[in-house]
UniProtKB/TrEMBL annotation:
Gene that specifies this protein: LOC111467488
Organism: Cucurbita maxima
Entry-linked InterPro entries: RBBP5/Swd1, WD40/YVTN_repeat-like_dom_sf, WD40_repeat_CS, WD40_repeat_dom_sf, WD40_rpt
UniProt KW Repeat keyword: yes
Protein name (Swiss-Prot/TrEMBL): Protein RBL-like isoform X2
Cellular location(s): Nucleus
The entry's keywords: Nucleus, Repeat, WD repeat
Gene3D superfamilies on file: YVTN repeat-like/Quinoprotein amine dehydrogenase (2.130.10.10)
GO-annotated cellular components: Set1C/COMPASS complex
Length: 529
């Protein structure tokens, strides 16, 4: 689509369902950082990678040891690995290009979500959020785990680890995520608090209380790391502005700690929290008061999107950062279970309860007057009467203005300008954006049936049955236009079609019929005389 002919007043957000993808029963999705590949976890334990440009399957990752549903998928920074968590408590790291397992470990609890460390090109650490345990840092090479504190009283990791292993204390699933470069972990707990944790020292560095104290169900950063989104049980989506620098956030926190030496305990953590996050906006449906599912940011962070958690409806709400609801996308009567915004384009991808992936795109309206202000669009054809001098050549008045271009200036064709959306890319790293296409064999079941039916018809023809001979003698014509495919497409008429096919005489049958024809004719002539 040409950018100049797009109406600039149209919002840069999706509006209609452009297409849907179908492969088994898909449960969760994730784009790579360029948006060229889409990974989808299925209910049978497989992970399907779609080429988002061609909308075809580029690769399928299937672990024979895993037959449980996939709970989450996560790409590495440069797209060479995918981390897959499953309901059988496993975490599997895949090599995308080779389609081979790198590591596979089994946790004590089912991981609802797992995220690779975002600051490494070949990460070995991941953040897992189990069903009945505190979030943990997992070393995928050694299998070692470090439980993170989920409240201020749990800073002693040994005591928290004992509680989880004994299973004596009920636990509410806790949401957690890395910051942009992965030096801090942000945890949303069941007390309505956001904890900023240094996972290397296993220490809470700051705490931000959420108004109302509702359980935090989701927590996610925007792509640029400037905003943090939380989804709570009080049916409200909150946006916080990140006041820490994206890099070296720990050093900044340590400096704040030194300035607040006079405070201690929870008061000190709250004071540091005010220097880390500040509430920016709240989103909610004040009329229906619905719960939200899989909220996230757009690729540029300008839009906030959330799916309705109501059963039997597939609604997606889109707000701008100012807090205004700009669009409600209404899909089929199927519950929504996952949602993702394309990293670059105004495209939203949603997963329904039936396992289909719906692709929502923008309904573009071309504005041809962008080429010339005096351009006029006609509703219907009109007869045009040209002026007498309209097409006369006037060389003096039609001189083309020469462009002020320095022809001696050297053009840089070596260096590549960095895209602002990927400003953190390392030029020395080879990024995996596309996968080689693997041709799939055609389905031959229907073809085999056609061949079988055709062979049966040929056998019947070679038998030279009296039915075919009688048909030829009586001058009955046969239907040779029908094909075996028609037989398969019309099973009700299959018997009649095959019967017609049997009347087709073979070469030997034709010879016999040619010999018998004069005899039959002579007999009839004798009787008539």
């Amino acid at each position: 689509m040409n950018a100049p002919i797009i109406d600039p007043l149209q919002g840069d957000f999706p509006e209609v369902i452009e297409e849907f993808l179908e492969h088994g029963v898909m449960k969760c999705i994730a784009f790579n950082r360029r948006g060229t590949l889409l990974a989808a976890g299925c209910s049978d334990g497989s992970c399907v990678i779609w080429d988002f440009e061609t909308r075809g399957i580029a690769k399928e990752l299937k672990d024979k040891d895993c037959v449980s549903a996939i709970t989450s998928v996560c790409w590495s920074k440069y797209g060479h690995q995918i981390l897959v968590s499953a309901a059988d408590r496993s975490l599997t790291l895949w090599d995308v290009l080779k389609g081979e397992k790198i590591n596979r470990i089994t946790l004590q609890q089912t991981p609802l979500q797992a995220r690779l460390h975002p600051g490494s090109s070949s990460p070995s650490l991941c953040l897992a959020c189990p069903l009945s345990s505190a979030p943990m840092i997992v070393d995928l090479k050694t299998g070692d785990t470090i439980l993170l504190p989920v409240c201020i009283s749990d800073t002693d990791t040994a005591s928290s680890r004992g509680k989880v292993l004994d299973g004596t204390q009920p636990f509410t699933p806790t949401a957690a995520c890395f910051n942009k470069y992965g030096d801090l972990v942000y945890v949303g707990n069941s007390k309505g608090e956001i904890l900023v944790i240094d996972y290397e020292r296993v220490r809470i560095e700051a705490m931000v209380p959420i108004s109302g104290g509702a359980v935090v169900k989701n927590i996610v950063f925007s792509r640029n790391g400037q905003y943090l989104l939380t989804n709570s049980n009080d049916r409200t989506i909150r946006i916080y502005e990140n006041l820490l620098p994206n890099k070296d956030g720990l050093k900044f926190i340590d400096e704040i700690m030194k300035e607040l030496d006079e405070l201690d305990g929870a008061e000190k953590l709250k004071a540091v929290g005010t220097k880390c996050l500040t509430l920016f906006r709240e989103f909610q449906d004040s009329i229906t008061r619905m719960h939200w599912k899989a909220p996230c940011f757009s690729g540029d962070g300008e839009w906030v999107v959330g799916g309705s958690a109501s059963k039997g409806e597939h609604k997606i709400y889109i707000w701008d950062r100012a807090g205004y609801l700009v669009k409600i996308l209404e899909g089929p009567k199927e519950a929504l279970i996952d949602l993702s915004w394309h990293p670059v384009h105004p495209i939203v991808v949603s997963v329904s309860l039936t396992g289909l992936i719906y692709i929502w795109a923008k309904d573009y309206t071309e504005n041809w007057s962008a080429f010339a202000p005096d351009f006029k669009e006609l509703e219907e054809n009109e007869e045009y009467v040209e002026r007498e001098d309209e097409f006369d050549l006037n060389p003096e008045t039609e001189k083309v203005k020469e462009l002020d271009v320095n022809e001696d200036e050297e053009v840089d064709i070596v260096n590549v300008e960095k895209d602002s959306a990927f400003s953190d890319s390392d030029a020395s790293q080879d990024e995996l954006c596309f996968l080689p296409a693997i041709p799939c064999p055609d389905i031959v079941e229907q073809h085999d049936k056609c061949v079988e039916i055709s062979s049966k018809m040929i056998d019947d023809d070679n038998s030279g049955s009296p039915l075919s001979e009688e048909a030829a003698v009586n001058g009955r014509t046969t239907n040779h236009a029908s094909s075996p495919l028609e037989v398969l497409d019309n099973p009700d008429d299959a018997g009649g079609t095959r019967a017609k096919r049997r009347r087709k005489p073979s070469e030997k049958g034709l010879e016999l019929q040619a010999e018998k024809m004069p005899k039959e004719v002579s007999k009839k002539v004798g009787k008539a005389s």
